[in-house]
Amino acid sequence: MFGNKEMIDLKPNRLLLNPKFHGYKLSLDQLTVYNVKLEAGVCLTSLPESQFSFQQVKLFGRHNNLYADSHYENVVYFINNGLEIEQLVAKKDSRPTQTRIVYTIMNSSREQVLSRYNVSMSFPEKALAVVSDGAGKLCVLQTANRLKPQQWKASYEGFPLGETSAFHIMHSVHQLSPNGHHIVDVLLLHVDERGKDDKVKTLTVLEWLTFSEGDDESWTMDRLRRLEGASVPDYACIQSGGSALYISSDKDFQIVYDSMKPIEEFPLENEQDLKQPCYTWHQTDESLFLQFTIPAKTTKEDLNVEITNAKFHCGIKNGEVLLSGDLWASIQPEGSTWSIIGQSLDFSLVKAAKAERWKELVPGDDRGEMTVDAETAACIHERLAHLTSATLVSTVTLSCGI
Fold this sequence. Notes:
Elements: E1 32-37, H1 54-61, E2 67-68, E3 75-79, E4 84-89, E5 100-104, E6 120-125, E7 128-132, E8 138-142, E9 153-158, E10 168-176, E11 182-194, E12 201-213, E13 219-229, E14 235-238, E15 245-248, E16 253-258, E17 279-283, E18 287-293, E19 303-307, E20 311-316, E21 321-326, E22 331-341, E23 344-351, E24 368-370, H2 374-388, E25 395-400
Parallel strand pairs: 17-24
Antiparallel strand pairs: 1-25, 2-3, 3-4, 4-5, 6-7, 7-8, 8-9, 10-11, 11-12, 12-13, 13-16, 14-15, 17-18, 18-23, 19-20, 20-21, 22-23
């Protein structure tokens, strides 16, 4: 039943390990590579300045412009600049043919929505597809046999979360109702910023939508379920049959809405996941930057600060300890500084090992939130440029073999 939440720790089953296994043997034979020239470039979305949170960067960084069809072997899809879905069939040991346009997303609001996502697709069944324009529009498409040269038809087109509420498709599944009608469950994801001024918090929102086919073959959205958490999940999917939702994430998710029944309130495993963080921090290859909010009129004399190469302590005298413990890695205390500007207490710490990426400041302390500054985000974009560069969208490269 939706609303019952179970936390599961995954542990290795060593009985499944083969004690005689010595390793994989990789073939050194050269892979066969085919190039297919594209008439139009791939539809790409750049991360705007308003979406530089760590959660947004994580979501954009995992995007893949090619979509494999799990129901048909060696079939991939991408969406071009004209919002046309193109299909490419690649058979082993044979040169693939030219791409084929199977559907065009019409009346998209991508030009009007500033905080949009990349276009996304999912294939819940052999004759159904789900596609999003990344700007709030969702289409449920009748594809019939996708290997046959025929155009896809829309069974549902709409803005299920509102005309300006963009989202990314995470997963979809299909089932048949007792009277033989199609039911499709779709999992959507978007990242929201809520609050004002210095009290803004970033939330990851999962929207679980259920669509069904009527007697007249029209489709309607029957149910909407919503979950909120403090991180983009590493993996999320709907169980086959639409009876449960699986989420793999380093932060807990809270069920906040169900259009068919009220949600029973129960506390999160970690209540602070959805609270304002006690501090924020970000990093470059050389430095770490921390920011605390302190009471008004606090001076340096009111603080107790101790910084060594391996430990950090900061607290208000006769008051709250802001952060204390062993650091993730070593720093250079002689090059580290701190200052007070209004109610902001800022630290600049110099890493001992350059270019080392820290996962935490103080291991075990999860009261803070790591953010991504514009410079770091630009660096991430540069490192990922070879995956989505405009110079590479004129051809599709396919590799066949093992």
